Amino acid sequence: MTSIIQAKSAVIGGKLRQDVWLEINNGIITSINDGISPGIPDQIISDTLIPGFIDMHCHGGGGEYFSAEEDSGIQRVIDLHSTHGTTSMLASLVTEPIPTLKKQIRKLVPFAETDAICGIHLEGPYLSPIRCGAHDPSLLRDPTIAELSDLLDIGAGHIKMITIAPELPNAIEVIAFLVSQGVVVALGHSNSNFETAKRAINAGASVTTHFYNGLPHIDHHNANITSAVLLDDRLSLELILDGHHVNTPAVELMYVSAPNRVVLVTDAMSAAGEQDGEYMIGSLSVIVQEGVARLKSDNSSAGSASLAGSTLTMDRAFFNLCKIAGRSIIDAVAASSHLPAQTLGLTDRGEIAVGKRADLLEISIEEERLRIVSPTPTS
User: What CATH number has the domain spanning 2-51+354-373?
Assistant: First the structure.
């Protein structure tokens, strides 16, 4: 069953190409051609065709969390973000007691088996109490290979990423073990020094969880984890670009220092797509005002209530990167699709290329308009 899509422009191979047409067979791109299709296209894209977004750090949306007890709640999160262009996502879980975490993982496995999600991300409980943010400090713990082995078994191969503070006891050994099991290790919620962070990177860590946030400030007297991950090109740097977590000059610094390593994420909590009000993250109360989520009672010593995830969606992050941070549509596609796919080892998606999944979006940056493109077979 073949479908033809004619596009005025498309982001392909890191370039913006004009007048291209695609052939799609059973959801897979089978050819990419310049010019005008000789046949009648099934769809005409008048704006720009881009690959679907891949969100590798998302907790919830639509009033629900990936930790929801009912399948309908989990599906509501997926559906909310799908309407905003996310075609693949990791289901992120916050710090919980280990028995609760096991229950949540078991609940998510069927969604991963059907590719409704592309895997599970554990953001905790192996975090620094000094940089715990919106994670309950009373539930944090040191990682052990035995405990992680048990969690990986329960996840049945679907736990794809785990965030760890590298300064914790056993952390370097655990990181090496997780990497040997094919798990992506993210460094985050950490107060580590430079040397310990480098040991973690050498052990195989390859992602920084929401860079800048949950990390110490760059210190020109005492080098720390923030400097280590910014300088080392082996790590992708997650970026929550909602206008509150990171300011524009800080984004510019990331692109000057690490131009090919920025990955847009939402870190969305349940209020994404919902109204302001009071919500929960795990066992902690959160107040959302004007779309900004902060802990009701703070866990940190920063002097102001900690940000508690975001209400961001990937389309908003994409538009913000282009219109506020001034990056090109090429950069935005790399940060929202191609680099996340590479980071997670998703070789079948993340770009418009022959042999890849036809996860496609039509987007207008000027008008901030997005449409999900569903290829329709001709016969």
Answer: 2.30.40.10
